[in-house]
Amino acid sequence: MAIYLPFYGLERDPFGVTPDPEFLFMTPGHREALAQLLYGIQERKGFILITAEVGMGKTTLLQALRRELDSTTAVAYVSNSMLPFQGLLEYMLEDFEIQKPGESHAQRLVTLQNFLLERHRTGQNTVLILDEAQNLYPQTLEQIRLLSNFETTKEKILQIVLVGQPELLARLELPELRQLKQRIGMLCSIPRMTRNATRNYMRTRLRLAGANDAGIFTEEAVTRITDYADGIPRIVNTLCDHCLLIGYADQTRRIDRDIVEQAIGYLEAGAVPRLVAVRLGPVESTTGDALDPDATLETMPSCLFDAVVVPDGEACAAALSFHSRFGHSSPPTWMN
Q1: Is it the case that residue 326 has pLDDT exceeding 70?
Q2: Residue 282: CB atoms within 10 Å
Q3: How far apart are CA 33 and CA 160, in angstroms?
Q4: Taking the CA of residue 305 as centre, how many other CA atoms within 13 Å lie in the half-sphere pointing to its CB?
Q5: What's the half-sphere exposure (Cβ side, CA atoms, 13 Å) at 156?
Q6: Is 284 in contact with 260 (CB distance < 8 Å)?
Q7: What is the mean pLDDT of residues 246-256?
Q8: Which residues 6+ apart lie within 8 Å of 2 measured at CB?
Q9: Which of 50, 41, 46, 126 has its CA nearest to residue 92?
Q10: Segments making up each domain of the chain, as ranges
């Protein structure tokens, strides 16, 4: 949990980097992609292709898709696109909870085909989702195409969703993948967020995190974040998280443009914002001004401290012990 949550009146981390579908912000592009995914799966279109830039929330969208699918749809979700086809097949069989897949490669394919036919016979659907598909080798993609040969005379019995970065489109232009390209039943590309969508994205995530104050970020700060992120949600999240951490360190309840510029500087330098000073007991600045009367070394990660204000030797030893638990090889600077 982020240390700044209580200070800003937040219940949850508003700008986390994990794919939490509860925080999915549906731009028109995301809504269209989700609608196409649901339609393609329900109508058994076979191959469905979704592309978007890095950090556009593709994985979060897939988590939302899985929540939308009904209980009659079995899903195998593979995120490790560096696996060879045999590894992907084993992963699928495990996800589909097939107990005795067979010893040889051929036996596993037969087991999968029988599994798919039985599910189709009982009116159930089956989906394979391949995330980060731009990393799949051409020969692996061709073997995945062959899985689409599992069909009846009327319908596809395995729906295959390929999700990846725009490089996936270029890969499908390879001559050896022309058959796969021809089998893509539905294609959708998610565009970057507009400036207005980026503003709404920030407000929505703050609201979902429990914020009562919609003005934590000033208009000038939002404008700068929007310009820097260029419509990429992951960049918005990372930058806003840095801003809130710096604001917490400065005990500033309004994030202005200056704080955003500091956060951008940290991001571009590959560094993490660091607090100025802390002590066991109330946190103080180096000038002795109280920053947060409730914060202690027990509630604030030592990895963020440049300097520690301590009242005595015993506390100094305790702080050093706390500091070392975070894997620091050198001690912090002590200020009395």
Answers
A1: no
A2: 14
A3: 15
A4: 33
A5: 24
A6: no
A7: 93
A8: 10, 13, 241, 244, 245
A9: 126
A10: 28-190, 195-269, 283-335
Of 13-17, 69-73, 212-216, 255-259, the range with the highest mean pLDDT is 255-259
Tell me how far apart the alpha carbons of residues 174 and 15 are, in angstroms, rounded to a whole number. 38
Query: At 290, is the pLDDT very low, low, confident or very high (cuts 50, 70, 90)?
Result: very low
Residue 22 has pLDDT above 90, yes or no: no
Q: Position of tokens 């982020």? A: 2
**Interatomic CA distance for residues 80 and 133, integer angstroms:** 9
**Do 202 and 167 contact (CB within 8 A), yes or no?**
no
CATH architecture classification, 195-269: Orthogonal Bundle (1.10)
- Pairing outcome for strands 283-284 and 290-292: antiparallel
Residue pLDDT, tens place only, 115-165: 999 999 999 999 999 999 999 999 999 999 999 999 888 889 999 999 999
Q: What values do phi and psi take at 87, rounded to 5? A: -65, -40
pLDDT attached to residue 145: 95
- Percentage above 90 pLDDT, the chain: 69
Q: Which pLDDT does position 87 carry in this prediction?
A: 93
Report helix, strand or coil for 206: helix
Q: How far apart are CA 230 and CA 250, in angstroms?
A: 27
Question: How is 101-154 classified by DSSP, letter by letter?
Answer: --SSHHHHHHHHHHHHHHHHHTT-EEEEEETTGGGS-HHHHHHHHHHTT-B-SS
- CATH among 3.40.50.300, 1.10.287.3510, 3.30.200.20, 3.40.50.880 for 28-190: 3.40.50.300
Q: What DSSP designation does 217 have?
A: B
Q: Mean pLDDT score of the chain, rounded to an integer?
A: 83
β strands within the chain, DSSP E: 47-52, 73-78, 125-130, 159-164, 184-190, 283-284, 290-292, 307-309, 333-335
The DSSP 8-state label assigned to residue 5 in this structure reads T
* Tokens at 63, concatenated: 């988590």
Cβ atoms within 10 Å of 275's Cβ, excluding its own: 24
Contact 78, 91 (CB under 8 A): yes
Q: Which two tokens stand for residue 188?
A: 């959708």
pLDDT of residue 303: 45
Judged against a pLDDT cut of 80, whether residue 41 lies above it is answered with yes
